[in-house]
Every structure is written in C-alpha cells, then in structure tokens.
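Narrative of activities, Objective 1.

The group set out to show that a structural description can be obtained from nothing but a protein's sequence at a throughput compatible with the screening campaign. Below is one input-output pair from the validation batch, recorded exactly as produced.
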Amino acid sequence: MPDRYSRQVIFAPLGPEGQARLRESTALIVGCGALGTHAADHLARAGIGALRLVDRDIVEWSNLHRQALYDERDAREGRPKAEALAEHLAAIASGVKIQAHARDFNHTNALDLAAGADVLLDGSDSVPTRFLLNDVSWKLGVPWIYAGVIGGGGQVQLFTGTEPPCLRCQTPELPPAGAIATCDTAGVIGPAAGVVAGWQAALALRRLATRDAREMRGKRAILSPWDLSARIVDVDPDPACPVCKGGDLRALEGAFADASRVLCGRDAVQVFPAARNAPFDLEKAASRLSSLGTVTYRKGHVRVASPEGFVLTLFEDGRGIFEGMTDALRARSLYSRWVGQ
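Output recorded for this entry:
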C-alpha cells in the first residue's frame, strides 16, 4: 500500500522522515469515549506504529451520538469500549499494533500501562485520572496531552513531562464536588468532541513525527465550534507547583483514588474491589450471580440484569459497573453482598 500515506507525507513539516518516526511510535490513550475514539481513529489512520487503549466502561446507546466507530451492536451487547474500539480500528488500519485493556487506569497499574509509550493522550473526563496522568508523565519524562469537552466546546494542552508548566501548576488540588460542569449537567455535542480530539491528535502527530513540540509548551487552546471561536492562552509555571517544582507525585501513591465512582454522562456507578489487581475468577462469579438475575457471560465480562431494574457488569479485574444507579453507597453495598470482595 505505497500510496496510503502519500497525502500526509507530502506535508512538508511531517515528510517521509516524520512518517517513519510515527511508524516507530506508541501512543497510550486513556479513555475510549468521545475524545479517545476520535483521537485513536486519527492516529491509526495516520500510520502510528502502536496504540494502547485503556477504558473501564462499556458501550451504551447514549454514547453513539458522539463516540466515533462504535455501532448499535456494541451498545446492544454492552461490549467493553477498549475491545470494541480495537476491533473497529483493526478493520481500518490492520498494520497498527493495537492493545485493548478493559481496565480502570489507576495508581496500581498506571506505570505499567504507560511503559514504553511515546505520548499519553487524555480521554478520561476525570480530574483524578488527569492528576494521575500528570504524575505518570513527570515520573517517566513522557509528554501527555490533556483534552476536555463539555457543551459546545473544550480545551487542549500539551505537557512535556520534563519542563514546566504541568497540569498541577493550574489546578494544584482537586476541585470541590459540584464545582465543575459535567456532561450530565451541561450536555455535549458530537462536533465539539470531534474538533477538540482533532486538535489533540494533531499535537500528538507533531510530537511523534518531529520529536519536538517546544513551541506548544505553556499554551492552552480554548475551542468553541458552536460559537465559531478559538483562542490560545499562555499558562505560566507555578513556582509553588507540588509536582513539577515540589516532586510530589501523590496521585501515583493513590491519594486521589476512590473505591466507587459515579460515571459521567450516564446513570451508572463503578465499584472497585478491595484488593485491586488480585486474581478474579469471572466464570465462578457468573455462576454465583445466576440466582440474582439474567446472566450473560462473554469473554472478558459478565452482565447480570437484575429484576430491580439495574444491570451489573463485572470485568476480569474484579471491577463492577452498576447501570441504572447513581447511589455510590448502595452500589458499594450491593457489590460487597453479591461479589464478596
């Protein structure tokens, strides 16, 4: 397929040398939702060497208006997002090595999942996860690209992982509950996600193909496709930053981890086992849960439709997602009773 990347290669800032470097590169994408699916699609089509996809969630119907590549079968079957996205990307770019991890990205596995990656892309829609990505980036000296979308617009910024500023220069601590709008409260449109992810993927391509993006350091793009506006703001390093000045990598120590979490944009709660990364027998769990509702067992996950109106999906790492529920305490209690960890 000699002409596959021809229109990209003749773009002078990239060129054949950049295409070769891109082919040797690996990107980790954390979160395969509205941003992650679009960014993964761009990078796969551009000819990146490897993509590592991490997402804890499953595909549902409300995802389809903004999350690229997923189809109605994925939603109907409640497929893990990372696995479904990997399958669709393989049909688009068979030469790209794709790894799918249907796991929660947390302090117990973050460094292992990021090992060997040349760039980290944020599609998480979670401030604690972004704090963790920031720590991983600084620990490994690997750049990461923040992206967020809400309503009709969003923001993008590249952090080098070796030079300030970092994310914690701008957000030293977690915002209080309710301080930030979410897709539950403000909604989100698909084109906004596509535009923001396009800028994020362009930054990743530039960094991977040229091995240099110093001109982008300390700049944040604020984009609003709905209002046809875009502006770039300068972000200065914070001399009191806990991470890039103080070396405080608390996120890697689990300082911001939760035992349960309400998932953005849907009536669902994710619950983590008490012993993370401990061996978990999914087949035995499926057998035990058969008395509680209708059980569907597929490789990598089990779904239990409860007569009470919610669905529990269990994954190989022991995580559970309760769909049709927003009460984190109740979800935690049911998990303890049903799963027993």
